[in-house]
Amino acid sequence: MFPKATLERLKLYHRLLSEEKEEYISSEEIGGRLGIPPEQVRKDLSYLEYKGKPKVGYHVKSLLDELNRLFGLDKKVKVIIVGAGNLGTALTNYPGFSNYNIEIVGIFDKDPAKIGKKVGDLVVLPMEYLERVIKRFNVEIGAICVPKESAQEVANLLVENGIKAIWNFAPALISVPEYVIVRNEDITLGLLSLKHMLEVKNTQSKQG
Ligand SMILES: NC(=O)c1ccc[n+]([C@@H]2O[C@H](COP(=O)([O-])OP(=O)(O)OC[C@H]3O[C@@H](n4cnc5c(N)ncnc54)[C@H](O)[C@@H]3O)[C@@H](O)[C@H]2O)c1
């Protein structure tokens, strides 16, 4: 098990390495580009099986292969979206997921006015098709992009139909069986912490 902060930084290293053209990279270069001390980079990477070479650095492909395995990116993961509103359509249209072997295979809504509309290459499906799509594509992740009042109802449907992991964008806590993994994505909380950091910085510069 990695410490949570290490895991978050490993994601940053992964993104940087995915775009790296050179064969080898040093901890100084990684740290310099990400604003992370090189000692920290070395410590984080020491959790991995692959070890860099002294004076040469890390072989980019070997490091990337291990990080891909670690994040399960070496195998494709299928996702469905429930809620074809602002957020659901934005996620479905986002091209960046394919870089991570993530494929959105279905988008669903209960509103008859949305059903049948095209979103990217997909057509918005009615909720009755949930089971069929999950089974047909072996979908593991379901994203909840409905208003908070409907979040639990949608979570129940996803679980009943075999979804093992839920990416919840609704600002509501959902209850699911223990075997189901939930990730709550609250963009507002991120913004609040940024606001707090900004206030601290402004106060410090006034005092200094
Ligand atoms: N829009 C954003 O940038 C944003 C950012 C962060 C979080 N969120 C959260 O994400 C969720 C969606 O936001 P939005 O802006 O896309 O809302 P939206 O109103 O544009 O879309 C919600 C969609 O969910 C559908 N829906 C409602 N109940 C449903 C149900 N029981 N089954 C299936 N479909 C159902 C509606 O018909 C609608 O199409 C909200 O909970 C919101 O708080 C949105």
TrEMBL record:
One protein family per Pfam: CoA_binding
GO cellular component: cytoplasm
Gene3D superfamilies, per the entry: NAD(P)-binding Rossmann-like Domain (3.40.50.720), Winged helix-like DNA-binding domain superfamily/Winged helix DNA-binding domain (1.10.10.10)
Keywords tagged on the record: Cytoplasm, DNA-binding, NAD, Repressor, Transcription, Transcription regulation
GO biological process, one term: response to redox state
Record has Repressor as a keyword: yes
Family annotation (InterPro entries): CoA-bd, NAD(P)-bd_dom_sf, Rex_DNA-bd_C_dom, Tscrpt_rep_Rex, WH-like_DNA-bd_sf, WH_DNA-bd_sf
UniProt protein name: Redox-sensing transcriptional repressor Rex
Source organism: Dictyoglomus turgidum (strain DSM 6724 / Z-1310)
